[in-house]
UniProtKB/TrEMBL annotation:
NCBIfam families: nth
Protein name listed in UniProt: Endonuclease III
Species annotation: Fastidiosipila sanguinis
The protein's enzyme class: lyase
Annotated function: DNA repair enzyme that has both DNA N-glycosylase activity and AP-lyase activity. The DNA N-glycosylase activity releases various damaged pyrimidines from DNA by cleaving the N-glycosidic bond, leaving an AP (apurinic/apyrimidinic) site. The AP-lyase activity cleaves the phosphodiester bond 3' to the AP site by a beta-elimination, leaving a 3'-terminal unsaturated sugar and a product with a terminal 5'-phosphate.
GO molecular function terms listed in the Swiss-Prot or TrEMBL record: 4 iron, 4 sulfur cluster binding; class I DNA-(apurinic or apyrimidinic site) endonuclease activity; DNA binding; DNA N-glycosylase activity; metal ion binding
Keyword annotations from UniProtKB, A to Z: 4Fe-4S, DNA damage, DNA repair, DNA-binding, Endonuclease, Glycosidase, Hydrolase, Iron, Iron-sulfur, Lyase, Metal-binding, Nuclease
SUPFAM superfamilies attached to this UniProt entry: DNA-glycosylase (SSF48150)
Boundaries of every HhH-GPD domain copy: 46-194
UniProt-listed SMART domains: ENDO3c
UniProt gene name: nth
One GO BP annotation of this record: base-excision repair, AP site formation
Family: Belongs to the Nth/MutY family.
Amino acid sequence: MSKAKNKILAANEVQHIVSAMIKLYPQIESELNFNNNFELVCAVVLSAQTTDVAVNKVTPELFSKYPDAESMAAAELEDISRLISSIGLYKNKAKYLKSLSQDLLDKYNSEVPATREELESLAGVGRKTANVVLSNGFDIPAFAVDTHVNRVCKKFNFVPEEASVLEVEEVMCSKLPASIWRRAHHSILLFGRYQCVARKHDHDKCIERIEEVLGE
């Protein structure tokens, strides 16, 4: 595997390395816990700048009390805030949950929509969240770029260092077949969460781990 600086890898090279990440982390499901698409969109909104573990600690009580758009929209903002107060940015996220629930009532007959444009019309839902919901909730090919995916794609020269989040998504979608976008997202994310971490580390060991898998 080339360690050359700033050498952007070709599609076949990216696919080769991603195949190793998939072998290391074959999980295709999100680490967020959810039972339906309403819970999924809420959980992904809650996960911004917060760990999935932290979100999974607050959602059982939250979804038990407010299991659907109707009940969440009617909830007192202070109570939603109380239930999620252990996670980061909880006050803003409480507002998003209440507002997106009202959006679902007003625009989509309480159902989570299945297009990116409609999902992004919901309060607190950006492109990354929409892509996660499309792929995990509707099995529609999409490649979500969170902080882990963004970092790993740049560390391995899949994309230019200066690429925006949208550009990372576009480049990765052009280099990977749509049939593996969902799996690739999860595997790259988990590789970044558990191997090629955000804190300072010896990146050569990350490369060596990939080479070990490819050599098996």
